[in-house]
Amino acid sequence: MRIGLDIDGVVADSFPVFLRELNKHFDKKLEKIDNYDMAKLYGVDWEVMSKFFDDHMEFLFSEPMPMPGAVEGITELMDKGNEIIYVTARNPGGEEEATIKWMNQKSIPYDKVIFMGNACKTSAVKEYELDVFVEDHSGNALKIFNSGIGVFLFDAPYNRIQLPSGITRCYNWTELTKEITTLK
């Protein structure tokens, strides 16, 4: 089976790092990211938020730990013969280099990593003929699901919407690995 994985919020526990650094930078004391639109959450223009991420990208992408159980779950899935393809909204270039370096340092296995930038992930999901996809952004999850691919939504404060039948919410990597394994 070909399994697609998002990185931030699924494999990388990025949002606690983002929250801490955004609070420092914008002098806020937010306790959680409950809106995926962080510019709106912090009350700034997207250009300001984009500049923050550009200026701090290497630190923001190297600092997170893997999500608890992610390395073990991904390894188990690969050991069972599944192909793991990451499809991320991170940009090619510097973000690509920082991401691959982080994955290697954290011993995160992969077959392929696709850097989409602002492009819709659905095109990569179709191109690489993925059987299932794991996402944390509810908008992306719905688009991928509507293209005919099975989706698991990794639970987060910013994605708690009513899900259609066919998108399965998972709360941790143990649960996710078990759900994917039962698909075979």
Which features would summarize this protein structure in a list?
46% helix, 6-stranded parallel beta sheet, HAD-like_sf, 2 domains, 5'-nucleotidase activity, 5_3-deoxyribonucleotidase-like, HAD_sf, EC 3.1.3.-, alpha/beta, 184 residues
Explain what this protein looks like in three dimensions.
- Keywords: Hydrolase.
- Its EC number is 3.1.3.-.
- This protein is α/β, with parallel strands linked by helices and 184 residues long.
- It is built from 8 helices and 6 strands; from the N terminus they run E-H-H-H-H-E-H-E-H-E-H-E-E-H.
- Strand 2 (83-88), helix 5 (94-105) and strand 3 form a beta-alpha-beta unit.
- The N and C termini lie close together (8 Å).
- The relative contact order is 0.19.
- The mean pLDDT is 95.
CATH class descriptor name of the largest domain: Alpha Beta
The largest beta-sheet arranges its strands as: 3-2-1-4-5-6
Which percent range fits the helix content?
Answer: 40-55%
The beta-strand count equals 6
- State the domain count: 2
List the total number of helices: 8
Give the second-level CATH assignment, the architecture of the largest domain. Answer: 3-Layer(aba) Sandwich
Family: Belongs to the 5'(3')-deoxyribonucleotidase family.
Protein name: Nucleotidase
InterPro entries: 5'(3')-deoxyribonucleotidase, 5_3-deoxyribonucleotidase-like, HAD-like_sf, HAD_sf, Nucleotidase_putative
Active site: 6, 8
